[in-house]
Amino acid sequence: MTTTLIGIRMSLSLSEREKRLRLIILMFDRFSTLIDFQAVHTGEILAQTATDVRFNDLHFLKEAFKMYKNGETFRNAWDKAVNNDISLGEEEKSILFSVGASIGKSNTAGQLSMLEINRQNIENIYENINTYNIITR
Q: What is the pLDDT of residue 129?
């Protein structure tokens, strides 16, 4: 491949990652809304977000829901789906594993706090990518 094609491919890969990170942030916001205002359980959180068309590009979400509907626990379905999603980077996976381990395990305030911390971690990754893009242009 020529240098130009490699550069274009890297740029597309970064923009796809940026889009995915924004969707994860939006997903965390949706989780927070469901927990805070509707007090739904983890299975319902998964069902409502996995069937929301805004999250179609988060492949792990649909896969986790499918496994959950087939009898897996929320945690097992979530962890397997996150682990198997090759589009996710290791940083994203680590954060998503943390959310999967914590969601539904504490009171509303604790869950909202956990989601906000992990949301900020994803925001930091997003901002680092944007800084990298500015530097390399």
A: 81
